[in-house]
């Protein structure tokens, strides 16, 4: 029986593009993230067990910011969307910038109900 994950993930389809850090070619989009890993949505399946040098390019007001990291593909399978593949990655020593991005996205996408005024 496969192990169930209990890590909270945040859905981010088609917003943050991931690039191969060596070739600067796009690999796909972040589907969701956690501090230890991410789901990559791509047009090609990823090599399970492969270690990839990746880069996320975050647009900024004055300049583009890069988050460079290394991740290992744990699994890859065809998505329900034709021509798309989902691949799960675990990060190898996630950099501080990646962890800060995950936290910023968690805060941004979290629902915070307003307190009732008396």
Structure commentary:
InterPro entries: PilZ_domain. The protein has a single domain, classed as Beta Barrel (Thrombin, subunit H). It is globular. Strand 2 (17-20) and strand 3 form a beta hairpin. With 118 residues, it is mainly beta. Helix content is 12%, strand content 42%.
Binned strand content: 35-45%
- Indicate how many domains the architecture comprises: 1
CATH architecture: Beta Barrel
CATH class label: Mainly Beta
CATH topology: Thrombin, subunit H
The amount of helix comes to: 10-25%
State the helix count.
1
Which regions have little confidence, pLDDT < 50, spanning 5+ residues?
Answer: none
Q: Strand order within the widest sheet?
A: 2-3-4-7-6-5
Structural class: mainly beta
Largest sheet: 6 strands, antiparallel, barrel
Shape category? globular
Mean pLDDT: 83
Corresponding CATH superfamily: predicted glycosyltransferase like domains
Strand tally is 7
**Compute the gyration radius: what is it?**
16 Å
C-alpha termini separation? 52 Å
What's the order of the H and E elements? EEEEEEEH
Organism: Pseudomonas segetis
GO molecular function, one term: cyclic-di-GMP binding
Pfam families: PilZ
Protein name: PilZ domain-containing protein
């Amino acid at each position: 029986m496969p192990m169930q994950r209990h890590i909270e993930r945040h859905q981010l389809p088609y917003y943050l593009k991931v690039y191969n850090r060596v070739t600067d070619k796009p690999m796909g989009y972040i589907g969701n993230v956690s501090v230890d890993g991410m789901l990559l949505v791509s047009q090609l399946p990823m090599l399970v067990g492969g270690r990839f040098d990746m880069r996320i390019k975050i647009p900024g007001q004055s300049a583009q910011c890069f988050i460079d990291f290394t991740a290992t593909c744990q699994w890859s399978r065809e998505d329900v969307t034709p021509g798309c593949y989902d691949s799960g990655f675990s990060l190898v020593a996630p950099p501080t910038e990646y962890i800060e991005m995950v936290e910023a996205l968690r805060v941004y996408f979290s629902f915070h109900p307003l307190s009732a005024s008396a």
